[in-house]
Amino acid sequence: MNLHLVDILLIGAYFIAVLLIGIYKNRTESTSNYVVMGRKLTLPAFVMTLVSTWYGGILGVSEYSTSYGVSNWVIFGLPYYVFGIAFALLVAKKARSLEVSSLPEILVADYGKNAGRLASIWVLLLASPAPYILTLGLILNYFLGLNLVVSIIVGAIFSLIYIFNGGLNSVIKTDKLQFVLMFIGFMVILLVLSSSYMNPVELWRALPESHKSLTGGQSLGYILVWFFIGSWTLVDPGFHQRVYATTTQGTAKRGILWAVLFWFIFDLMTTLTGLYAFSFLPADTVPSQAFLVLGHAVLPWGLQGLFYVGILATVMSTLDSNTLVSGITLGKDIMGSYPASNRVGTNSLIKVAMVIVIIIGIFMAILIPSVIDLWYTVGTISIPALLLPTLFSIFKNPLPKATVLLNLTVPPLVSLLWFFFGKLDEWNYFWGLEPFYPGLFCSLLILILFKRSSEGVKH
Question: I need a surface site. Which of 26, 101, 270, 457 has the fewest CB within 10 A?
């Protein structure tokens, strides 16, 4: 891809700015500052970091909105508004009042270290930077023509550099810049397309029914799975980390509601861009590259670079956040739970862990080269394990310890086996059920049977 010198300079300036903002005066030795910013996260910064870290798989959005139209909003938008609002109204204040620094700590307090370690495994999957390592690699591959594996490695290493010493403070500072850039980038391309190609009303009239359909031609079962995967919000470790870092319980609640509004606006912008890509680009365009190709096709130099910076900001804000959360989970919650770790500082453990999760993320990105498949697989396996135990603890109604240990073990294995057997049979799942459903049903069954039996013993 040939970029004008001005566009190259804009992209280069963005990388330099992120690096300087992430490193400058952010070094800290305090674990509280490193992990939750000393609980000093204010409302504007909280909103900007929640919004910017929620959209890292922008090429997945490109793929889905271009291929299936407005159903992109139904699958990747609506469920997250529902569960985001539920979190704000029902969970945020209670979660912030716990004064913990990570999601597994909630389960450790009620069920012990083994429960915390098991939970940390599924948190690691949810917070895996792999989808965003892949996305950044694909973008660098498209821009620079580098081998995809090389692009994946280069992008992953860069994202680690500027958060290594500053932790969450570095992430928040860079998120403020990236929040602004991601909105500007998509605003630019939509303004150009609506003025030079066709306005949104004309575009809607020209679209085929398949791209106006809320299901996009997908089965209701498939749509519902993605809706329930939206419950990811309730146990998302990055989401929780930022709630724990806020200054007050009220900040956490109000900030999430504001974030939902900005999610809605940005989802409209990205879905509309996908519809323009479908209408404007040749039919043989690779859907995951549609946003990149569209920017190159319709934007003049300067604006093209600004749009690409917006895409990069969308990806990197999530990649650095997930790298940090994964490092905290592996370093503090797993490695730090063993006595031998007492000889090593918590911050050092987190830094070592970040290097490990980046390496694992690189391998995952190479082995599963689809952002949507990575999201789907991770959510299907992890959410049934974490959802109920976490919510019961947050609402101060802890379950019997045996129930939780079973819930953290059996449901995700059921979903995983269902997933693999379906893959062996060319994606023909038993009874047509997506893997998420048997995992969640198993979790509910364990809760009903073992909670009832424990109550019977008490009586």
Answer: 457
